[in-house]
Queue: 3 jobs
Job 1
Amino acid sequence: MSAEAAEPLAGAAAAEPAAALPHDRWRPLEVAFWLLPLPCYFLFPGYLVLASQIFITGLFAVSLDLILGYAGIVSLGHSAFFGVGAYTAGLLARHGWGEPLSGLAAAAAAAAAVGFLVSFLVVRGGDLARLMVTLGIGQLFFEAANKAYDVTGGVDGLNDVRMWRILGLFDFDLQGRTAFLYSLAVLVACFALVRRVVASPFGLSLRAIRDGGKRMPALGAPVRRRLVAAFTLGAAMAGVAGALLAQTTQFVGIDVLGFNRSAELLIVVVLGGAGRLYGALLGAAIFMLAQSYLSGINPVYWQFWLGLLLVVIVLFARGGLLGGARRVLALWASARRASR
Amino acid sequence: MTPALRTRGLTKAFGAFVANADIDLALPVGARYALIGPNGAGKTTLVNLLTGVLPVTAGEVYIGEERVTHLPQHQRVRRGVTRTYQITNLFPTLTVLESVVLAICEREGVAGAWRCTVASRTGEAREARELLAALHLAGDAGVETRLLPYGKQRLVEIALALATRPRILLLDEPAAGIPAAESADVLRVIAGLPPDVTVLFIEHDMDLVFRFAERIIVLHGGRLLTEGTPAEIAADPRVREVYLGEAAHV
Amino acid sequence: MLRNLTGILFDGIAYGSLLFLISNGLSVTMGLMNFVNLAHGAFAMAGGYLCVALMRRGVPFLVTLPLVFLATALAGVVAERTLYRRLYRAPHLDQVLFSIGLTFMAIAAATFVFGPTQQPVDLPPFLRGQFHVLGLDLGRYRLFLVALVVLVTVDLEFLIRRTRFGAQIRASVDNAAASAGLGIDVDLVCAATFALGTGLAGLGGALGIDLLGLDPTFALKYLVYFLLAVAVGGAGSVKGTAAAALVLGVCDVAGKYYVPAAGAFIVYALMVVLLVAFPLGFYGRRA
């Protein structure tokens, strides 16, 4: 089976005579997937805000999948970049510049800058060192935001985030229609970018680094440089996701930072299946839907079942939903071949 | 003429244990040399020192005129030194074709490109398919390397090394574990390398060594025991003594 | 000024000893079983809550301590035999996710049973208040804490250096495969060591109620400190963890005293700096 980069359900069929290389032609299943939100816009007008949250979490999850699933960097502090992006966009708007797209750009730039600096600490160590450093960085930013009450609003959060019209035309309305289309558009654009990166030689080299770190220098690859680039890109995208959250909810809570946000994101990516991009989106959708339904009932139960889910996934379903689906398809295909 | 690869007084110590002691060797351009010695003689350590995987304790390594003793591995690779591994060291979830294409892209310096797709790199893909065909791996091009049988994984190892178009190729037991039929393929490809490529291979299979090498270097206890043509080595009583108990094809 | 400094030093040492007590188990687990156990804080928390539950039933504080140690050790053995050992060879990410899952479950359970507020601890009268020594005010409880930790450490050192079981632990940490080849039951060593480590963590959690507080967020709040002590000290190294824990304790107390506005920021910054400077830990063991 060829390990192609961004397939939703990788072909369980036997290898084709001329083996394929990673490409980015859009498969029919993918196109169908991306058309799904549009009927939802019309069919579920009361759930547009939730849908925007799903898109934002999806983007955030994809940014982690790039770092974790493709580059193999275990990060417990990815929320730091989400938070940097959120506060950048939020503070810009609060202090008078509410233009959405430039706010996104500024957030991406800020998060990328922080990610770039952090990456040098992260690419050096082994797994454990990376865990520690990313955990520490995540907590560092949380504490900083907590203490800098005058700037960030601390635990109370940053409100009064007033956004201007998008492209001078679309106002952020209370039902969330603009937010829905805005976050969807940004998600699609970023996803297309990541999809291309993952199918490129750079993406292939990332997977190779993740798989066999020792072999890559033997091929002449500048491993650290590649990891820095991947980490920075992931950080930038997380920043964009954070900015989207700030702009669409017009508020920045301190929970955009901190361990809980990072841990939940790890769960999202692993739930859907890491290293597949679509797994991150699927995980985000399911997680957000489950959370909105269940945690409203009882937040303590939610946390308990979330922990249990995690334990079960690790012990029994390591590839996540897409990994499981792939295995099911493979079994089905081999059963078909056997019955011929 | 300047040797392609040269060492002077190369020494490697792990604490009190000296793996390589004071090794001087010189590989002329286009050499087909073999490195032999009983297990534990320090052969793989020597290759690790030459490629930059391990730092030296003392001595110098030169690629051509350039002193490379302290250069990291990936920079020595850029200067044309490639190795294969005694223990297969592949990319488990990449397919055979993807692995070789990646190696070629790294050589060409385009592996950092993010705006095009791998599939669009037709030149590299074609070269990869040709290389795989030469090693009779074309049928497995789409298979993930972790799913291959051991013998084929070794062939992919060799393919990766060859894909870097090395000027100096260090092969660590290239034929180990490969069934006889396929090892003929390996040898044919290596023998078919251009005359300006320098090859040093470690082998225990004396058949291969005597058939293939123009000169043999013998290592024992971390030191250079002797060096000579196959005929000289076969006749050397010290070598026979060192190999006493091992199957020496004399 | 000097009084303040000594006071801070003393507080820092007390705090650091507590961290050491808890982190020690984590250090050995990471060094021996190469398992990143982020649920270690949850075990400590469990010890604390068990102590509270016992005290509510009228058990005196000092009596709860050995009970908590044994109970948490037992819980550790059960967890290790049923769940942890399946993941010894798993990638670190899997271990991280698994232990985070356990931690979430523990936090939820604690909130459900005890509620989200801080738990009080009922110290015996002779441990309350202070000793006045050489013009300094030394908290009695803190003195007790340090003394207890020293006692435990001496015992541990004796166990590790002078007993056969200790030799087996050291051998297994150095090279599990070779130890197994020598007939050492590495499985048993792992289970026993894990039990010991979690037992100590539970004990530390109970002892720490007065110093660190106890609420459901304990498991995660102090996890960073434990991990830091282990990573900087070097996994598997008792001396290293002790040194790191003490440095950490003193720096944190000093930081919060002199620069209260920065809060825990100093510790995290220190963490990053130390990790970069000592990628293999103070004593050079694999981290």
Note: Chain C touches chain A through 44 residues (CB under 8 Å).
Job 2
Amino acid sequence: MPTPVIGTSVRRKEGREKVTGKARYVDDLKFPGMLHGVTVRSPAPRGTIRSIRFAEGIPWQEFTVVTAADIPGKNCVALIVDDQPCLAAGVVNHPEEPVVLLAHADAYLLEEGRRGVSIEIEPLPAIFSIEDSLARKQIIWGSDNTFQSIVVEKGDVESAWRKADRIVEGKYFTGSQEQLYIEPQGMIATADREKGITIWGSLQCPYYIHKALAVLFDLPPEKIRIIQMETGGGFGGKEEYPSMIACHAALLAWKSGKPVKIIYDRAEDMAATTKRHPARIRHRTGVSRDGRLLAMDIEFVLDGGAYETLSPVVLSRGTIHAAGPYECPNVRIRSRAIATNAPPHGAFRGFGAPQSVFALERHFDRVAEELGLAPEEFRRRNFIREGQTLAVGQVVREPVDMNGLMERAFNMSDYRAKRERFARENRGRNTRKGIGFAAFLHGAGFTGSGEDYLASIVAVEATEEGRVRVLAASVEMGQGTNTIFAQIAADALGIEYDSIEIAQPDTANVPNSGPTVASRTCMVVGKLVESAALGLKQTLIGSGLLGERYTAAEFADSCRRYIAQWGPLKSTSQYAPPPELHWDDKNYRGDAYGAYAWAVYVAEVSVDLRTFEIAVENFTAVQEVGKVIHPVLAAGQIEGGVAQGIGLALYENVVWREGRMINNQMTNYIMPTSMDIPRIRVHFKEIPYPFGPAGAKGIGELPIDGAAPAVINAVAQATGANLTRIPVTPEALMEALEAMRA
Amino acid sequence: MPEARGAIRVTCNVNGKTMKFSAFPMERLLDVLRERIGLTGTKEGCGEGECGTCSVLLDGELVNSCLVPAAQVEGAEIRTIEGLATGEQLHAVQECFITHGGAQCGICTPGMILAAVNLLERNPRPTEANIREGLAGNLCRCTGYTKIFESVVRACEARSGKS
Amino acid sequence: MRSFLPAYALETPRDLSTALDRLAGDPGEWQPFAGGTDLMVLLDAGNLTHRRFLNIWGLRELRGIRQDSDFVTLGALTTYTDILRWPQMQHEFPLLCRAARETGGIATQNRGTLGGNIANASPAADSPPALLAYDAELELVSARGSRWIAYSNFHSGYKKMDLRPDELIARIRLPRRAQGGRQYYRKVGTRKAQAISKVCFAGAAHIEDKRIVDIRIALASVAAFPFRAAKTESVLRGRDLGEESIHAAQHELARDIAPIDDMRSSARYRLRIAQNLLEEFLIDCSAAN
């Protein structure tokens, strides 16, 4: 039997194509007779469409023009509730809302066409802030602008205040953040009234798009086919929005009878597609004088933009993560996702948790300060342990040693010595240094009953050549899906990694293993890969064509013989929840996630008081993640997530004007370069999770949850400023320090 | 609608082969490569010269192909990602990007690799600071850069016979 | 790619004289196109309003760096990479090297030209403060002849400059007497690389004992165009360098500059940082003595 490959950094399945330029992204495809498509969008944040005018001098007869009137089925992008139109009809509710679609074979002439369509809007008063939405200055959605509200209660917060020796309050804000995948969004569609619709695209969730098209066109499922092309980054930005573009391309293909390609340019992608939900978080924390948590009262509000899309789910995750890896007997979290007249906000790695974790970890440094305790001492006295319950009432049923992780992170980063030295040496210097940390957790998989609802399926089949193919809807978008699935299958079957193939995610061929989101691909879908592979092995052994022990060659041979004798050999596995996992949707209590990854991150910064520029000098990321399937890929996830978290903390500022992002160019939306990110040190602790493949948990989102508060806690040490809002740009730091002096 | 003007004929050398094509004079080299010549390995990330995803080597110098007009490549020698490997044999930088995690989603990878190759051709023993500066014009959203540095450092070692 | 490409002309004149004849024949009809690092960005965004361009990239007469006893003269098509590769530049004009190194990334430095940068007249350009600190002069050529002007007189307003429609910037020369003394350059951008500046400061000073014999202070991103802070210079010239003169200069600087709020930064920040950089420069000068 070949040596097991799980736990080793095998050669990536997707590697060679990517480094030679052979990998095919959607814009690399060209079809005969193909048209290019563009979207004409609302210039106003809210109002009624008075007229749509087509300028003179453009050969409109050559163009395909689509409006809402052309939609065969329901005019919506089906997701959770069907409130978001595919094309605005009569009213618009946010700037950049799609109104008209155009197609033409000549991409340059098409741009003339886009310029030549004017949409006249009779304005209605619009709202742009959480405050105005909560105050109901205008009702722009539903009866009270509220997409969703959640209440989590543990113990009795109100009665606990009396027992507290100290009560500390704080208010925190996190801004929007653009996913900024380097490959802009794009889709190609062909549509035939007989054969149906086929989509090729840059996407994370083939079956989300499948459902959206079925509703838009009122077509049966077998008439819709979604094929994922190589995807140049997603981070959640290609979770739900691609459905919109696929619908648009399909409408143009339907009307024109030709293949249509829509590729967003960067300015359009940034202004029109989803971004991270801005958040306002209020903490009220009661503690005993010896630093024990008695009560936590948290208000968590997310700005969802103009339509519901995924806001309830983002709210859910942010809420569940809001009280962190701590034991507190009395907790109340009241959360709300509200509407404003901005393009809908959406999925972005972390999905609500970066927002609530930032607030918590900043707040806890402050609570420690009020108590006269070192921040790590306050954490140490309150870290949750096995057998205790999280805020939603979930009993921690795995060994967790937050203090051990913290000590490891501190050793690796020389935290204590540096903290002391910086405090001593900063006085009177123009460059101040600081070191700070954040402690946090991230639940993998869909929340609560979400995975039950998804009921994901994976198939593993043998080929006539004796190779094995994995069939799943999970996409590769940089994280190494194909590689880890192949590792899992290879070890489950006891055969060579090289004999495993991963099918391209194509809804005509692969079952619905759910979306590539929520840190579930390895832990949940990978587990199904493992069990489907084991099922395949059992079938072969059960058929008598394979012994209990075999060589790789014998395995291949038995596949060939089985297929020759019995026909196709395919094993499927469907998700079943781990036993004893119970979630009460109605009361929002119970086992929110099957498993959590646990982490402590340490950031070291230097602050130039002449320019207020902040540089991250060192970063240490320590986490417990179950079994690490591929060390290089896993470390890559941590490093990439940390870099995005540093961006969220210091650089990435979305500048809004009347609901529109005005710095929608890479020149003015600042993402860190190679000069801005230090070497990131990564350490994994591995405590196998029994229900993950080979013991693995999910890690994709974990790193972005804790990076920003670690950085800001370090800046706070360096400068003494109580920073409560991110990003902390140099301008913001200057204002904060001036306010302190005043 | 503005009056249309004519295309021009351009002759240049791409990856060692002579290419003759028609293009509009202000047509981006990026689009010439992808649409006219059919070399889709060079990618578009921003169209504003900020991300470096479209980097190619033009007469031996790294340029953002989204900012170079077709009229200016007459007689030029252009090297794209497709011209890097020698048959089946990958360039050391390509090989190290696979094994050391320098590529994740791969979209910035062609430009990043060419930038690294160009850096090493000028400075075979760069320090990490040199690497950071040399690659500062190439943005990566996936990796956080750590493994890109590692890949380039390993490629240096491989080329100088160490490792 | 938001422009209707077929509407754009980019013609390649075979030499400088032909180019100048073109410009003279239809004044304002043609605009020069060098490395494209500014114009192609506008083209891509659909914001390039001018349609007819002269491709001057290949004009050898506008390339090359030469030196004689009085000047180092750079052709207008000198790229930032050319500047960084010229062996004596770091020693003779280090501020210009700093500026070149901080302009975009390697790919931008390979294609951006000094002449293009000057003519594009962005208020936030990186090289102009160094050029101003070095008392650079520009040679402007046309079919009618040529003239030299001080670069400090070139800009008169936002994108308004002393460049006639039939003229091209041909050469930039830096007086070698401008070397020496204390030199300082600092660009404060949105990040450490590939950044547009929020404040860019270049300073050069000759100090004898404690006296400021001569001083040049140039800034970008704090006014409609890069400029010499003349009022601030006059407050310092002839004075002893010390806490008092530094504060006086900082106070005067607020009157010299006119920073704005924009999507990158705020007027308050720009003013404060400009004053801080001035202080850093002056402290740097006194430390050396």
Note: The longest strand of chain B covers residues 8-14.
Job 3
Amino acid sequence: MNAEATREIYWNIGHVWVMYALLVPTLAAAGYGVYRHISRWRQGLPVACFDRPAERIRRVLTHAILQARTARDAYAGWFHRFIFFGFIVLVIATTVVALDADLGMHIMHGAFYLYFQSFVVDVFGALVLVGVAMAAARRFVARPKPLVYTDEAAGILAAILVIVVTGFLLEGWRIAATHDPWAAWSPVGNLAGRASAMVMTGDAMRLAHRVMWWFHLVLSFGFIAWLPYTKMMHVITAPLNIYTASLSPIGASLRNIDFESSAAFGVNSLQGFTWKDLLDLDACTECGRCTASCPANIVGKELSPRDLILQLRQLMHERPREAFGVPANGDGQPAGGETHAGLPLIGMLPALSPESLWQCTTCAACMSACPVFIHQMPKIVDLRRHLVMEEADFPASMQEAVMSLEKRGHPFSGTQASRLDWADGLNVRHIKDASDAAVLLWVGCAGALLERNQKITRATAQLLQAAGVNFAILGRDEKCCGDPARRIGNEFLFETLAKDNIAKFKQHAVNKIVTACPHCFNTLRHEYAHFGGSFEVYHHTEYLARLVDEGRLKPAAGGRKVAYHDPCYLGRHNGIYDAPRQLVQIASREVIEFERCKGSSFCCGGGGGMSFIEEPPDKRVNQERAREALATGADVVAVACPFCTTMMEDGINARKGDRDVRVMDVSELLLQAVQPGTSAPTSAP
Amino acid sequence: MNILVCLKQILDPEVPARDFHIDPAQREAERGAANLVTNIFCENALETALQFRERSGDARITALSYGPATAEETLRKALAMKADAAALVVNDGNPNPHPLTVARVLASAIRRLGQFDLIMLGREAGDWGAGQTGALLAEELGVPCVAFADSIERAGGHLRIRRQTEWGWEIVEAQMPVVVTITNDEHNVPRIPKVRDVMMSYRQLLTKWNASELGVDAGDGYYDVTDLFIPQKETRCEFAAGDTEEERAGAFAKRLAELTSTL
Amino acid sequence: MKDIAIILFASSGFDKAAQGLTGAARRLADEAGAKLRAIVVGATETVAEVARIADTVVVAGQPEMADYQPELCLNALTQICREISPAAVLLSNDTYSQEIAPRLAHRLAGSAVGDGIEIRMQGDTVRVVRQVYGGKAQAVLEMKRSPAVVWLRARAFAPAPARAAAGEIAGAVLDLKPDQRTRIVERKREETGEARLEDARVIVAGGRGVGSRDAFAAELQPLAEILGAQMAASRAACDAGWAPATWQVGQTGKKVAPDLYVAIGISGASQHMAGISEAKNVAAINTDAEAPIFKHCRFGIVGDYRKILPLVRQKLAAVAK
């Protein structure tokens, strides 16, 4: 190992000062580019996202450095890592050169030079080329649908390719022309040098090197200057976005509105977004995974979370002054006298058409798929809020549900069912007669008023009774938790319902709540705290699993093939995957996973107010999931959510033909296992 | 043009039968867990008035209610739907006044509120459903009445009113002032107010009187409710039996055929 | 004993409603030991038929009375009733009668009540039974002023037998001042030629569960054709624009009394049931086994009408052969 191993920096190059001179406009341009982004984010409303730094840093390491989500697509994950780590190594190498050349720190020599600066750098440079080749193959040959095909994207790949290839050529010509003794330590450069030597003389290589060096420099500086004006900006915005992303579970992603002081209810101009929302837009890498995982989009509807984000971003960049209008001061009040709200978004941007906005089930597959933690779904809800609360313009069937919520405290307009129908013969106590009750069983509107779901409520109550749990209900005093109102966009009505329910909980000194509905569960657990209601809330699968663990329920093994469908609001929104599986496992002979399960579970199509919408017959989200369900070959599809129950039954009954496939709630399966001889519920044929 | 719309707050008529109970002593329905809502035909009337104003450009709409103090909610909702003004006559007497008393109280309030060209009410209320208030109000005010209308248009100096009949519809030309009672139609489903308007409605002034202040002669009676009961009627339904849907449909069809063949 | 009066509009003919009205009034008059005085608006053959049941008939046969105009008609009837000074004035539940009854009561200083399903005379007091609270309850009302102006659910009452000899028929002497404050300028009949829904023997009705206007035409109408039935709808379906308002049956729609009422996608809310309380047999198709409609049914089937009706129509067609 020769301690003198090194190379002459700037060999063959004169007028190096020009490089330093060029650095000025480069950094100026790049700096201005970054500044433009920041100036746009600063026009957003304030929001706090810097608490709990240790967790945030951990996230950045996992998702920005190790790129865990990007790697869910193995092919893309690898080529991105190649390019990413390749560039990191190249940047380190350049820094080493700068430290040596400009700061006089004599480090670029010896073993370090050979192992790192020569070998590692060559290998990683080659990996960049492999990565670019893989990316190019996907972009130009395979052409998968979710990708965004722009000249800019092609240009970026081309630029990287040319920079790295010219870099290797430079290295090769230097190695060949100087008869570099350590050539073998730079395998790729060596190869390039040897190949060139076959067709070029030493002088030719020297000339080529000199010219190419400046070309490579200008291209590289140009690339740096260009970076903030392209999607490459994600090298800065993605880690920043991942760092500032909300640490709450997905179920707690919607923001609250202060009705007294807000200038606008909901969002219909960029002015209504927070700076974090705007950063979201700039973090987008145009990967298209959100749209690729969106159940509405998959069944052929026009909703596209990717396009929503990109069109908002384009507007923010191209027409910022008009789009933002009069800048808002800290609380969202317009500054000064004139109120100019900024360009209205809905209907103006094609991806923000009202039709698209009313196709979202709020399943958050988009948020979960996004490698850089963009919050697409909450923006859709923000836009819905404008339509519902400022314009009162939303689909008629949703209007009926909202009016029913206002008048009757439930969304099922026209029902003749009473909230106590399910409890006939069960000897269930009202909480006012049961101050010693350990837990409140929150039935929910579906569980009380829909015939099929009444059976599930009964099953849950019977299990609690079998386990000797001292529980009570609110009976007729229960009002809708407010989830449908909130997801449809009527935040005002949601607040009214929430406050009503919280007052009742407090009146009866409730602190522990069990519910069979993941939407109620999510709302009670996360969304009531803002109004002063903090309770211990359990989903019935969690609670029943605990009862089984404690031996208070003794289920016998079951005998059927069961496929478990993860409800979005239990799984993706709240990370509860195991408790229901534990129960299904016990109660069946074989548990089958859906192909799209757990975090990637495919929505049943019922959330976000969608169960109150009539979808076109050829574009139904539940039909797609039903197809998947039937493909599992299971006899029973287990669900844990009333919307899923309805949607899956409808979908499966429509497609199953002669097969005997049933949809059962986890509690019904468990009840059969605990009390063999209980007949299976009949779902309408 | 001045329009007055009368609105009544009632117990939710869609309370399921299981939750509906009578107080036999008071001879009226028990409140129970039922919510208070605005009578749907009154809302149809307000919606018709709002559409009239949108089409004819110039009209001021006043909402009026005679009922318990809670009827203020009904008037706030009317203001949220963009009625221009609202007045409440709080019933501090018999909680279930008969139609003639109601008509006299409304007439008295209307005279105090000003001159109106068009007075609109729902055809009947979802609780007692007497269907007389509009007609009696017209008599009290000495003006004509057109019943079961579903839309109104301006036609020069008078009104063109479309009203439903059992065999179709009629167009009535009416001079003003006139009382019109409104029935439901696919076009007068009440609009949802904007949330901002709902919030603003609480800040608007409401004219309020106690009924006793109006000095209305309730008269010596109109009719008495001597009995109120829930009739017990149970039929056992025979559900079509069969293992397949085809079998069941066949059984159902058979019964249909049996019943119609004898006609 | 003061007389019992009835008001009929001759333009409707002596239809089932007129028969029911005269029947109810005849029995009431007999019960009270009073005379039955019929008032017929418009001069047609109806007069002769009514004269064989009532004791006397007053005909408002002036040319101005041929087509109903509210103010004029009310004026005329007020004059006639003042002359007769009856204990009670009974009317049918057609549009015109409902419109003028309360106003007539007011002008006569009497009291009005509507949608009566039973009427009795107890001494001098008229007692009427009617449905209230959207059909969930029944009330018995004692009329406090005279005359009691009562419009009845006429088709629910049985007709009275006609006598051989007719009662006295006289023309009304009226002082009719023109009153053009309201004028009916256009009348549109939507039911063409068929029997009226209220007289139909078989009815096929659709509700919220049907889902669209097309479904009414494609699924329910063919069933109605096979059964020889008339079409009807619940208020929810009419408000949604799936069926015309003339099809609406319920508390605020038509009151029907068919031998068979087939309810499809109708939950059975009391307001709807209030319109079919006189139906002899109700059959229903509904996806919800707990729907209240089944509590009023003779037979029913739980399921999706979209699947069931084609099968039912098929079977019916086969039976017909």
Note: The CA atoms of residues 86 and 124 of chain A lie 5 Å apart.
